[in-house]
Amino acid sequence: MADPWQECMDYCMEVTKQAGSMIREALQKDIVVMQKSSPVDLVTETDQRVEELIISSIKAMYPTHSFIGEESVAAGAPSILTDSPTWIIDPVDGTTNFVHRFPFVSVSIGFTVKKVIEFGIVYSAIEDKLYSARKGKGAFCNDVPIKVSGQEDITQSLVLTEMSFREDPEHFNIMMDNMKAVLNIPVHGIRTTGSAAVMMCFVASGAADAYYHIGIHCWDMAGGAAIVTEAGGVIIDISGGPFDLMSGRLIIASSQAVAERLANEITEFPCERDDTEVINDDPDQ
Ligand code: IPD
C-alpha cells in the first residue's frame, strides 16, 4: 500500500530548504531583535517571516491539516495536539544563535497523525545539513543514513544540554546541580549548541551520546524526536517514564542504559506543558 504521508514529507523537505535559504539571506542583513516572555526569550522578524512561509506553503497544499508553530503560539494560537494531521514547526530553532550569528540555527518540523510522529525534518541552515526521518524507514543526513553511537557506558559519553536563564532561583540551582551531578559521574564532558533540534541530531548521528533538557517545547522536539528514534536512539521523559511530546522535557540517548542513568542523576523541576487544555477526541470516552 502506498505510504499516505510520504508526499507530505517530500513537500516538507522542499519547504524546509526554502526556509533555510531565507535564514541564510537574513544573516547577511541587519537583525532587529525583540523580546518575548523575558529578556533572554528573543524573536526576530525572520522567525515570523519563516514561519509564515512554512505555514502558508503547507496550508496551500494541505488546507485541512492543523498547525502548531512557535511564533503563532506566541501570538496567541492554541498549542493543542489532536488526532488531526498536525505540522509542529519551529521556524528558527536557535534564535539566540541567529541573533549572534553563532552557527547552529535550524528549521525543525515534525508531523503527527493521531498524536504519533510520522516524520521529522531538521535543517541546520548554516551547516547546510538536512536531517530527515520517516517512521520505520531510518534516519538520514543529506541523504546518507545516520545512526546513534550505541554507547552503553555513561562514563564514556559526551552529554549535551542547555544552560539558560531561569527566573526561579530554586529551578536555576537545580539546573546547575544537575550539570554538576552529570559531570561528577564522570562523563567525558557536557556541551551545548543552543539549538535543541541540532542537539537531537548530534545524538542521532553519533556526534554525542545523550541530551537532556527541562523547559523546552514541542516545536523544539518534534522533528528531532523522529530522527533520533529512527537512528536507533532512545527517548524518555526526565522521570524515566515514557516520552511525552507536550511535556516540555526529555532525555535522549544512544542506549537505554545511558538514558536511564541520566534519569537517575537528574532532579526534576516544574516546567510548563505546551497543551494548556486537555482535548479528548476519542468518541468512546
Ligand atoms: C530554543 C533552542 C534552545 C533551547 C530553548 C529553545 P528557539 O529554541 O532550542 O536550545 O534551550 O529552550 O527555546 O526559541 O530558538 O526556537
Gross CATH architecture of the largest domain: 2-Layer Sandwich
Stretches with pLDDT under 50, minimum 5 residues? 278-285
CATH superfamily of the largest domain: Fructose-1,6-Bisphosphatase, subunit A, domain 1
| CATH class placement of the largest domain | Alpha Beta
Helical content stands at 25-40%
Structural class by helix and strand composition? alpha+beta
CATH topology of the largest domain: Fructose-1,6-Bisphosphatase, Chain A, domain 1
Net shape: globular
Strand order of the largest sheet: 3-4-5-6-7-8-9
Round the mean pLDDT to the nearest integer and report it. Answer: 95
Bound molecules: D-MYO-inositol-1-phosphate
The number of helical runs is: 8
Strand content: 15-25%
* Straight-line distance between termini: 31 Å
The number of distinct β-strands equals: 14
What is the string of helix and strand elements? HEEHEHEHEEEEEEHEHEHEEH
Radius of gyration: 18 Å
Q: Tell me the number of structural domains.
A: 2
**Main sheet overview:** 7 strands, mixed
Task: Describe what you observe in this structure.
The protein is α+β, with helices and mostly antiparallel strands. It folds into 2 domains: 141 residues, Fructose-1,6-Bisphosphatase, subunit A, domain 1 (Fructose-1,6-Bisphosphatase, Chain A, domain 1, 2-Layer Sandwich), CATH 3.30.540; 112 residues, 3-Layer(aba) Sandwich (D-Maltodextrin-Binding Protein, domain 2), CATH 3.40.190.80. Helices cover 34% and strands 23% of the residues. It has a 7-stranded mixed sheet with strand order 3-4-5-6-7-8-9, sandwiched between helices. A 5-stranded mixed sheet has the order 11-10-12-14-13, sandwiched between helices. The chain binds D-MYO-inositol-1-phosphate.
